[in-house]
Design brief:
Helices cover about 80% and strands about 0% of the residues. The protein has about 325 residues and is mainly α.
Length: about 325
């Protein structure tokens, strides 16, 4: 009986990983296809797309609160989890605002980075997040990484740099940087690094975890609260293009479905990632994150017909390998 239960748990974990990877892959695909329908970075709707994705996420979260159940565990052969309304106070909401602010703009910058140019290059830039996290945690939170981790950071930066190289007809290499993608990918990394630290700070408040009601509720609440920042940002930056968005959403079925499905898959793959974290150790999670990023970069590039030149693949391998090593180096060096 115990052996049968163990096999069932392993199968459930494998399914969670599969759906997590598939969800992340399809999110990137739907995200890019919606952006292409909206005219890409020159269409004037990239911020609007990112905000509308969070609107979909917030609607999904409120639907879960309405039925008081979260069906996502069904993907791992488990019963739906309870998801009651958070019992938070006004003071709790205020304490969560820095976290939701960072989450909001990490998402928007990430969407711009992944849709303004090559999603593969956007993913490679986003893979450099540990570099930004190391600097920000050292400067603002007095939490410097170990010396071993600092030594690995140049490997990550080097991998990203190599991935930008382009071979010319004379055999030389140039750096045709997509500065737009690089800039917004870097902004994404900055906000993502602050988000991680703010999450730890917020969740350390006495009793807050209990009042929120679990990790699933925390993610749902973060999506809803982030609209406080995202909607004004959308109005200020792209408000004049709102009629264009309404027309596109109303009349273009492909755009409407890609937008809605990008929001749903974004929500689900983040929840699935959280479920796998609860069931595995840090090493397994690091390996899984690395594998996921490789699958997304290669898979989306193939579907969209992007170039995967050997030099780009080499840079991708070095950068992502560096991220994996960064995750494991303390255990290797210090035991």
């Amino acid at each position: 009986m115990a052996k049968s239960s163990s096999m069932a748990d392993k199968l459930a974990l494998v399914l969670l990983y599969v759906f997590w990877f598939v969800g992340n892959y399809y999110y990137n695909l739907y995200n890019k296809q919606a952006s292409m329908k909206a005219g890409g970075k020159d269409g004037g709707l990239t911020v609007t797309l990112s905000v509308m994705q969070i609107v979909v996420c917030a609607a999904w979260a409120m639907g879960l609160w309405l039925i008081r159940r979260n069906p996502t565990p069904l993907l791992g052969l488990k019963a739906p989890a309870p998801q009651p309304l958070p019992a938070i106070t006004k003071a709790d909401v205020i304490s969560l605002l820095p976290l939701t602010f960072c989450y909001a703009f990490a998402h928007t910058a990430g969407v711009v980075a992944l849709t303004a140019g090559s999603p593969a290059f956007g993913q490679i830039v986003k893979a450099a997040e540990p570099v930004f996290a190391a600097v920000i945690n050292t400067l603002f939170y007095a939490k410097s990484p170990s010396l071993a981790k600092w030594c690995v950071l140049p490997v990550i930066v080097g991998g990203v740099a190599i991935s930008t190289l382009k071979k010319e007809s004379d055999g030389s290499y140039s750096v045709p940087l997509d500065l737009y993608v690089l800039a917004f990918g870097s902004v994404n990394n900055v906000f993502a690094a602050f988000k991680g630290s703010e999450n730890h700070r917020a969740m350390a408040a006495p009793g807050l975890k209990d009042r929120i009601g679990g990790v699933g509720n925390q993610f749902a609440l973060t999506n809803v609260l982030s609209l406080v920042f995202l909607v004004p940002c959308m109005v200020l930056s792209e408000g004049a293009n709102w009629p264009k968005f309404v027309d596109l959403f109303t009349n273009d079925d492909a755009f409407r479905w890609n937008l809605c499905l990008s929001g749903i898959t974004f929500y689900l793959y983040n929840e699935l990632a959280t479920l796998t974290i609860k069931k595995t150790n840090a090493v397994t999670q690091s390996v899984a994150n690395t594998a996921k990023r490789v699958i997304v970069i290669v898979g989306v590039a193939l579907v969209l017909g992007e170039s995967l030149a050997p030099i780009k693949l080499l840079g991708c391998a070095i950068g992502i390998g560096g991220v994996l090593l960064y995750s494991l180096i303390d255990k290797i060096v210090y035991g």
